[in-house]
């Protein structure tokens, strides 16, 4: 057998090394390029196609050929941009010799890393997930994934590829040389998102206008079957100057924060047991709420790859932030996920809510010499409602810091340090001494973002000096009617007495 023929057949055995090595495409299938010698005049390239691992891809052995079939391309998974690959030729292996092919045939990537290597070239995958290495000499190459975006939880292990590569029996055509070599390594990825969850109208949570609920969602990565999860945690971080975590201390009727749920890739709920599968711990300084999965919990996660872990967080606003933009509170979250065969990966995200300060002012307009001033009125009591209809019906009363009724001070004011931005209706329930309650025709008051918003409530109607103050309804009207009746009776008695005196005088005369 000639050296060239042997070289071709040896290469045939090794042609799919890059494709099968270290489980990139599954187990390598022996290939042959029988009767075909390497054509040194051919232009040689290596294209790395980087895609996201799914539950179904990454199991079919490759041939070194480019995948052009539309159905097969759609099954590759989402392309991954921003992944850096380094390709280094193994300098002490000559594939123009039979010995070179014999050496490569039993070589592992780990062994190759300890041999003489060329400096190599690094290329970052583009938007299509492709990194192209052009004008490569005939040879064996070590391919290493050196950097990847934070969403990548397990990097592709280093692998070997020969240029050219033999297609083997699975190729089309089979058993021939491929000079434009294509490989399709896969990565598991994770994602992290966070949203503000509005309270449903009419609930106790909606009535507590200083509460905010958040949902943090972390996707379980599709790690390789021969890999495992060493770490899976989610951390929620707040600024304690403006927010406070509520876990077991949520107001009555409001669901506690710090709860955890898991759905599989199809969206079906998966049972988790607190204390056994995970823990949720609030730091002693109140700044973080940390979800950590135990070994038992990570086993459940590994059985539900592609699923979603959700951490439910409840906070209470304690102050209006003064940072720009004013009134915007930011809630940050991060996840730390580590597969056994890869570095730990940290993802970060955030969500915001808006809060404001709110003040109402009661006064009596006083006009003197044509100038009107606002004389503050103390001891006016108020309730707040989300709508005029609620105010009229007395339903869905707003609660702030556990209180649902407030009274103005000597300056005629009451200030709420912080509440969620929104539209509210103020209902006065007790007027200052000597004044009637105003009608409920009060316009909605919008508390926007950041600064203090004001609602002024003038009291133009004083009670008559002989009337006692009432807190509402038609009490004053009834009292005035009764007083009038008393006056009529008194007047009648006086007339009778006068007539009697006149009659007596006439008789005496």
UniProtKB/TrEMBL annotation:
InterPro entries referenced in this protein's UniProt entry, alphabetically: FM1-like, GramPos_pilinD1_N, Ig-like_fold, SpaA_PFL_dom_1
Keyword line: Membrane, Secreted, Signal, Transmembrane, Transmembrane helix
Entry's transmembrane regions: 477-498
Signal peptide start and end residues: 1-33
Keyword Transmembrane included in the entry's annotation: yes
Domain SpaA-like prealbumin fold residues, every copy: 370-439
Any Gene Ontology biological process: carbohydrate metabolic process
Source domain of life: Bacteria
Residue ranges of domain Gram-positive pilin subunit D1 N-terminal in the record: 42-187
Family: Belongs to the serine-aspartate repeat-containing protein (SDr) family.
PANTHER family found in the cross-reference section: COLOSSIN-B-RELATED
Protein's name according to its UniProt entry: Uncharacterized protein
Species this chain originates from: Arenivirga flava
